[in-house]
Amino acid sequence: MIRVVLPYHLRNLAQVGKEISLQVDGQVTQRSVLDALEFAYPMLRGTIRDHTTRQRRPLLRFFACKEDLSFEAPDAPLPEAVASGAEPFLIIGAIAGG
User: Fold this and answer.
1) Check: CATH 3.10.20.30 for 2-93?
2) 3: exposed, middle or buried (Cβ count in 10 Å: 0-12, 13-18, 19+)
3) How far is it, in rounded angstroms, from Cα 19 to Cα 72?
4) 11-40 residue pLDDT tens
């Protein structure tokens, strides 16, 4: 099982706690985790990735094992600690402004 931590506004939208568990079949990548997340919680479709381009929304960041994975290829394998469930895949709301 893959552990995913969502930001507060997405937790409220999906009506879940801080961390959720997902079953991901095959290789564990950003794309496969987000596909499983959107399948399990359809109300999140379009909130994390654009409906058309499937690109990450600008004010969201992806982290795992203390590394920013936001600009990694969507089909690049996630760290083994995430794939095994030892570490969560974090979706973090970024802050803009000055």
Assistant:
1) yes
2) middle
3) 23
4) 999 999 999 999 999 999 999 999 999 999
